[in-house]
Inverse folding.
């Protein structure tokens, strides 16, 4: 599907300094929000090499936006022609199409997008997105390929009660509510760093959004939004990946631009699980440590994000003893354990819990498959401690969310190549 479809990994100890890129989970939301304005949007610290970001940019172009890279980390978004309400798209879909639908409906009164794609993490439906758009006055329906929404007289502010703290639904309510008439309140929102970054950019565009803790978000609708320049926050998932890889390999690295405030809970768990971590002025220094078994349960921020758990499964493989991982949000996300088993990792799924029986990292290289983005990164970490060569197939998944994954690892002592 993509040129970088295999990743060859051999055993290594990580040493050196690595700098974090802009967050994938923020950048995609900001690209969707750029549809709310006809004026110029400029994003800095932008992760342009990410496959999902490239897909999203092509979607913006298909809708009529002119998108130019001023450098590897600066993207310039303009609107020279009329914005289209239908996203005609035959390429790979990403789940962010739901936010595109919200933005198009809010600004144009109608929108249609391909049904969402991305990682297959158990049952990821879009009923909450349909609910919130209907609450704001839109008519929503789908067919076998597309999801449609119409609000000929514009969206109207309303109280939206989310039954669960959904990241995507919170983001879509914020985006759609920014141009809705009147006041929109989102109750039981998911307040996490990427959402605060989205709010910061929208407010710089003239939106009126206030966060009232974990209780609710208030959006006072605007008639239009202006252009802006905004810097994407550092990628906290990339930070945890390099941190875990360093400890698992007994390495010594410095991670620049480390987002401490976003990762307090994860850091507390990893310190307790044997990581030796030291805080710099704007960096984290990882001086190896010993991987002890972990017991974690994923949950809404500031808890442990579901994206983290495959990475910590690699940690558990290096530990001696049983680790327990519970992912109640996406309980079907343990498929990577079968791939790790090919390398010698013993595990069992017990209801919603994954039990990993670590043997101190006595692993052997094998040919495995990246079932999703984070699973691919986790398999690569296992490859860093395995004897012999590990080949990760469908490695393009990793490039969906990591900028220069192999190149960055090689800069701190790894021996990884694309194939």
């Amino acid at each position: 599907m993509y040129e970088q479809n295999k990743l060859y990994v051999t055993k290594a100890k990580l040493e050196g300094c690595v700098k974090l890129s802009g967050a994938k989970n923020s950048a995609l939301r900001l690209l969707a929000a750029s549809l709310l304005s006809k004026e110029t949007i400029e994003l800095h610290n932008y992760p342009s090499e990410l496959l999902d970001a490239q897909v999203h940019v092509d979607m913006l172009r298909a809708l009529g936006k002119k998108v130019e890279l001023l450098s590897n980390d600066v993207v310039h978004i303009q609107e020279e022609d009329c914005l289209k309400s239908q996203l005609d798209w035959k390429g790979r879909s990403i789940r962010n199409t739901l936010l595109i639908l919200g933005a198009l409906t809010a600004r144009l009164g109608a929108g249609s997008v391909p049904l969402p794609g991305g990682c297959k993490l158990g049952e990821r439906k879009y009923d909450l997105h349909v609910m919130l758009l209907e609450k704001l006055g839109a008519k929503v329906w789908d067919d076998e390929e597309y999801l449609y929404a119409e609000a000929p007289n514009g969206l109207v502010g309303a109280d939206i009660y989310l039954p669960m703290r959904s990241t995507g639904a919170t983001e879509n309510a914020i985006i759609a509510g920014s141009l809705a008439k009147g006041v929109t309140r989102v109750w039981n929102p998911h307040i996490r760093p990427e959402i605060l970054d989205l709010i910061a950019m929208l407010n710089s565009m003239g939106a009126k959004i206030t966060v009232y803790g974990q209780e609710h978000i208030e959006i006072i609708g605007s008639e239009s939004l202006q252009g802006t320049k905004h810097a994407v926050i550092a990628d906290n998932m990339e930070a945890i990946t390099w941190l875990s890889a360093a400890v698992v390999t007994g390495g010594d690295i410095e991670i620049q631009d480390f987002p401490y405030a976003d990762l307090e809970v994860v850091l507390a768990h990893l310190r307790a699980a044997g990581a030796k971590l030291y805080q710099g002025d704007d960096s984290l220094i990882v001086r190896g440590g010993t991987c002890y078994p972990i017991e974690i349960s994923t949950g809404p921020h500031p808890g442990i994000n579901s994206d983290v758990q495959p990475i910590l499964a690699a940690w558990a493989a290096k530990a001696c003893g049983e680790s327990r991982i519970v992912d109640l949000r996406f309980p079907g996300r343990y498929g990577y354990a079968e791939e790790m088993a090919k390398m010698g990792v013993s595990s069992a799924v017990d209801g919603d819990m994954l039990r990993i029986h670590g043997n101190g990292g006595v692993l052997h290289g094998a040919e495995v498959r990246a079932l999703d983005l984070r699973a691919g990164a986790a398999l690569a970490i296992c490859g860093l401690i395995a004897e012999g060569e590990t080949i990760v197939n469908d490695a393009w998944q990793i490039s969906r969310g990591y900028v220069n994954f192999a190149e960055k690892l090689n800069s701190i002592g790894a021996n990884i190549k694309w194939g």
Q: What stands out?
A: Residues 156 and 290 are 55 Å apart (CA to CA).
